[in-house]
TrEMBL record:
Main location: cytoplasm
Similarity comment: Belongs to the CoaE family.
Chemical reaction(s) catalysed: 3'-dephospho-CoA + ATP = ADP + CoA + H(+)
Pfam families for this protein: CoaE
Name under which the protein is recorded: Dephospho-CoA kinase
Originating organism: Phytopseudomonas seleniipraecipitans
Domain of life, source organism: Bacteria
Keywords of the record: ATP-binding, Coenzyme A biosynthesis, Cytoplasm, Kinase, Nucleotide-binding, Transferase
Binding residue positions for ATP: G13, S14, G15, K16, S17, A18
Pathway: Cofactor biosynthesis; coenzyme A biosynthesis; CoA from (R)-pantothenate: step 5/5
InterPro entries: Depp_CoAkinase (IPR001977), P-loop_NTPase (IPR027417)
EC number: 2.7.1.24
CDD domains reported in the protein's UniProt record: DPCK (cd02022)
HAMAP family according to UniProt: Dephospho_CoA_kinase (MF_00376)
Lineage: Bacteria, Pseudomonadati, Pseudomonadota, Gammaproteobacteria, Pseudomonadales
Length: 202
C-alpha cells in the first residue's frame, strides 16, 4: 500500500528539524523541502544558471555555488524578484519532493516544509502537523541560532504564514516550548497514532 503523506510545518525557530529527526529515528521516511530547494540549485542544474542569468554573477560564490546571502539581499526587499524566484523554484522543488514521496517505504512519509501553507504544498499531504511555539520563543531561538537581529527575524516572520493561519490548517499540533524529553514523548505518541490511520484520516 502506498504510504500516505504527513505535511510537517512550523514557523522559523519552532524546532521543526528536531521534531523531524525524532520521526526519522522511529523509521519514518522524510523529505525536507529546504533540502530539495538546495538540490535544485546545485551547480550544473538548470535553475542555478537561470538565477545567475537573472540576478547577475554576484549571486554566485567563486566556486560556482549559489551565494544564498547575496540572493537573499536581492529578494527580501523586492517582492517582484521574490515572486520571480518562487515561480522558478517551487515547481522544481515540488517535483523533487513528489519523486521522493513516490519512493517512500514507511507506512506514512513526512514532507517537511517551512512554507507548507504559503506554497500550497499542504494540498499534497493527507494530514498536517504544525510545530507551534509562542512568537517570542521563535525570535529568541532564531537570533541565537543564526546570529540575526530581532529586526531580521521579524522580517522573516513577516514573510511566513501567520501562526493563526498555520494552526487553521493543522490536523495535529505539537507545542514545542518544553524540554526535549517531552517533545520526544509527543512524537512517539503521534507516531503510534499515525500508524493506526488509513490514508491519513481516522
Amino acid at each position: 500500500m502506498k504510504p500516505w503523506t504527513l505535511g510537517l510545518t512550523g514557523g522559523i525557530g519552532s524546532g521543526k528539524s528536531a521534531v523531524a529527526e525524532q520521526f526519522v529515528a522511529l523509521g519514518v521516511d522524510l523529505v525536507d523541502s529546504d533540502q530539495a530547494a538546495r538540490w535544485v540549485v546545485e551547480p550544473g542544474r538548470p535553475a542555478l544558471a537561470a538565477i545567475a542569468q537573472h540576478f547577475g554573477e554576484q549571486v554566485l560564490n567563486p566556486d560556482g555555488h549559489l551565494n544564498r546571502s547575496a540572493l537573499r539581499e536581492q529578494i527580501f526587499t523586492n517582492p517582484a524578484e521574490r515572486r520571480w524566484l518562487e515561480n522558478l523554484l517551487h515547481p522544481l522543488i515540488a517535483a523533487e519532493v513528489a519523486q521522493f514521496l513516490a519512493n517512500a517505504k514507511s507506512p506514512y512519509a513526512i514532507m517537511v516544509s517551512p512554507l507548507l501553507i504559503e506554497s500550497g504544498q499542504y494540498k499534497l499531504a493527507q494530514r498536517v502537523l504544525v510545530i507551534d511555539v509562542p512568537e517570542h520563543v521563535q525570535i529568541e531561538r532564531t537570533m541565537r541560532r543564526d546570529q540575526l537581529s530581532a529586526e531580521q527575524v521579524q522580517a522573516i516572520l513577516a514573510a511566513q504564514a501567520t501562526r493563526e493561519e498555520r494552526l487553521r490548517h493543522a490536523d495535529d499540533v505539537l507545542s514545542n516550548d518544553r524540554e526535549l524529553t517531552w517533545m520526544k514523548n509527543e512524537v512517539e505518541r503521534l507516531h503510534a497514532f499515525y500508524l493506526t490511520l488509513n490514508g491519513g484520516q481516522p
